[in-house]
## 1
Amino acid sequence: MPDIVIKAEDGGSFGAYLAAPKSGPGSGVLVIQEIFGVNAVMRAIADDLAAQGYFALCPDIFWRQEPGVQLTDQTDAEWARAFEFFKGFDEAKGIADLKSSLNHLRALPGCTGKVGTVGYCLGGRLVYLMACRSNADANVSFYGVGIENNLGEAKAIAKPTLLHIAEKDSYVPPDAQAKIQAGLSSIPSVTLFYTYEGQEHGFARAGGKHYDQASVDLANDRTSVFFKRYLA
């Protein structure tokens, strides 16, 4: 699948990985990266969505710091570098880039115009913010970090949103999880919370220390049903 170029709204351009369905026209899913960049794990997720019939687009949200970041979670040095990118990430500009990516995805030949988002870790947080600030048609967050700090925006969520939560998440401890569930429980568009008992942050990251096949299969099945319902 090709890497493509997307124009940023404030000038410049950035890369993205595009996986297109072989089955012909379909809806779109914006895949939002973890702190390791648009690496092999993110590309595989996009490829899997394409195999399900979606146009899957994974944009490089770290391009303003360094284009083309592709790290793994296998060494301490890569973890340190990933956290440097995380700390240097301009969230407001990142959301603007994701909105540009969403518009690009909607306009692709063959895309029906129905477009959702899915993201992991940092990407899971950005999915929540896109639910609050964009016109994405459906949103799925995997163990998003820091959502509890933006619950004041929750009333703006107008489209179906699903959250996958790791019970033992080191980055989203029990008090944060409780705040998130309490803060979103009265929002009609937040249709589902799923908590994965005994699971750590990153349980869906293939090859990662905390990867759990049973949990990721369950989460992916639930995500598939959700997208089929709201992106058809």
## 2
Amino acid sequence: MTDYRSGFIAVIGRPNVGKSTLINALLGQKVAAVSPRPQTTRRRQLGILTRKDAQLIFVDTPGIHNPKHKLGEFLNQEAEEALEGADAILFLVDASTEPTDDDLRIASLLSRIPRSSKSEGRRTPLVLAANKIDLVEAGVLIPRLEAYRALIREDAEAVSISAARGDGLDELVNLLAGHCPVRPPEYDEEQITDLYEREIAADLIREAALLKLRDEVPHGIAVRMDEFKERDNGMVYIAATLFVERESQKGIVIGEGGKMMKQIGTAARKQIEEMGGHRVFLELRVKVEKDWRNNENVLKRLGYKLKN
């Protein structure tokens, strides 16, 4: 394996451009929560793709945006810190829309990245991937891609893809593999992520809530895993608490006669069972933690620790 390549690739983009969808597609299985709601991803997560010639370690990040609370500040910090020490950067954009203020914010961030000491002073390779081309009308893609290219440095390479449909993914992987340094793999070939099943299960519960609830609730939801235990009969018992910010939200999450809570639990349980390959008993409860997204003590307890 004298010419084997291995590298960390920071996947960066604004909310809802399809970063988690892309990583799930590249790995061929679900390791990251996905929903149509912004800020579904709330922490960095590795997606490890191992081939015969290379190991690409994708660092999935929260979408960079203009933060309106301390949770938003944490999400931006998580994304920006992923750029430190990356062997390559994948800037994912939404080809179905014009560049937004958040895209401009990311482009400004990328322009400030210093030259890498690991690459003898060269700038970290940057690849622009225009996602969702399946939603772009004929004749629009090329000018749309040029609008995004104009935001970033001239030496960046570009590729058009559809993470949902699979278009261009082989080209993207080959391009990124070529930017990885020659070195042995960092992880065993069987490993596909750095998170434990317990952590992924928490994300899948929140994903189910995001998919089931109305617009005014999802951003104010967090999930705390209270218990995750495999029993003698092979079934996994999971107890989790959903945190919301207001009493009115609690009522929405529970639903009339507990109907909404049951729907969330059923959807989450199916996803967790599919992920782990075993039966799951899932018990959910809801708790109000007023304005938790702006409470640093609560954020810390939930695993969102801001860096000063």
